Amino acid sequence: MAARDYGQYCGITRALELVGERWALLIVRDLLVGPRRYGELAAGLPRIPSNILAARLKELQEAGILRRAPRSRVIVYELTPYGRELEPVVLALGAWGFKAMGDPREEQVLTPDALAITLRTAFRPQVAADLPATAYAAHLGPTGLLVRVDGPSLVVTRGDGPADLAFAAGPSIHRLISGELAPGRAIETGVVEVLRGRGDLLDRFATTFHLAA
Amino acid sequence: MAARDYGQYCGITRALELVGERWALLIVRDLLVGPRRYGELAAGLPRIPSNILAARLKELQEAGILRRAPRSRVIVYELTPYGRELEPVVLALGAWGFKAMGDPREEQVLTPDALAITLRTAFRPQVAADLPATAYAAHLGPTGLLVRVDGPSLVVTRGDGPADLAFAAGPSIHRLISGELAPGRAIETGVVEVLRGRGDLLDRFATTFHLAA
DNA sequence: CTGAATCCGTTGCGATACTG
DNA sequence: CAGTATCGCAACGGATTCAG
């Protein structure tokens, strides 16, 4: 089957048998943002060996967590409904690990899909509900993330589009979300570079997305 | 350090670096129920090699997730505050994996600590709030679990004690919690054996602890 | 050019034996 | 009882090659 089993009749062991192998939950993490092609997954997981990626995709498919879907000539991988139910697991892991991230090291990358999930983790619906609807465009190197907040609802997708504030950032955005770095200081120090729109909206961004470190 | 890293600056990768190794989260699972000695952990994880248990304990300790604590001459392992913050992760995994458990196989065991966490996962505080305070004693083979429900609060510990209902059960209790098996049928078919107290309270138990499959 | 399969060196795991 | 030591094996990591 999928993996070596633990010999216990328990939900946690079952879950770990299905998604406990190395890299598996990171594939799920990226697919939670949207369907991805093989190459997109490989790009979002720069250090995964291609044989491992292929093996995981096969295992996750057999476990009913994702499926291969043809999309106008090309194959994309997308989560099944059961796979999407892993979102609380991934968000809980992200919230817990957020506190142990420390400072970014030189060799560490921040991928768009990882940031998308971090934003979902850090999103405070009850805070956002009292703020005006806002669209942010966050750029990480070449790729962009479109972040739409409307009342208590959040949608994060890849790509660009009309936004009230467009900014470029890197791994240090972690310190903005943790509250370690004030929005004003983030712009001054170049951690966040305002590309278009109202830079003062970064304040609202930091209020909307917050996770204690 | 603890483990091979993923090369990403992301909360989820960080979490998986700390607790993503095989067996690690199962050690955390058991310690969430209470402090445990080395031998108790080994007994609760029948298939873990002793060298792996020793290695994981060392890694989890270095990661600040657990600590060795002397308790009147013997050493016990207990979670640190940061380790206890893994509870949402473990419960979310348990809830997700619960749906994929299927029927118990011959070689699969149900340990007291695993059941304790399953009960925490399946606990419905808002339902329990409207029911009288109740103490259950659940026996799995030799060891017992004391389950105290008082309004919306739940405490599950090892051991025996005064209970409104004491019963013996095995892995098939899964079908009671999932609602697949009605409490009356569970007693009739011997899946649950009433040892002491009011057997009709099993109804309340099944209402209090419920997780869809 | 994307989506893998193959080969092979390395590492972590599993089983058992052993020690303070 | 609480670990440590050893060894075979399976999984992982990296590079290369192959197929649609």
From TrEMBL, chains A, B:
Coiled coil: none
Record Gene3D superfamilies: Winged helix-like DNA-binding domain superfamily/Winged helix DNA-binding domain
A UniProt-annotated Pfam family: HxlR
Domain HTH hxlR-type: 10-105
Regions that span the bilayer: none
Alphabetical UniProt keywords: DNA-binding, Transcription, Transcription regulation
InterPro entries reported in the protein's UniProt record: ArsR-like_HTH (IPR011991), HTH_HxlR (IPR002577), WH-like_DNA-bd_sf (IPR036388), WH_DNA-bd_sf (IPR036390)
Keyword Transcription regulation annotated: yes
UniProt GO MF annotations: DNA binding
Name this polypeptide is given: HxlR family transcriptional regulator
Organism this protein belongs to: Cellulomonas biazotea
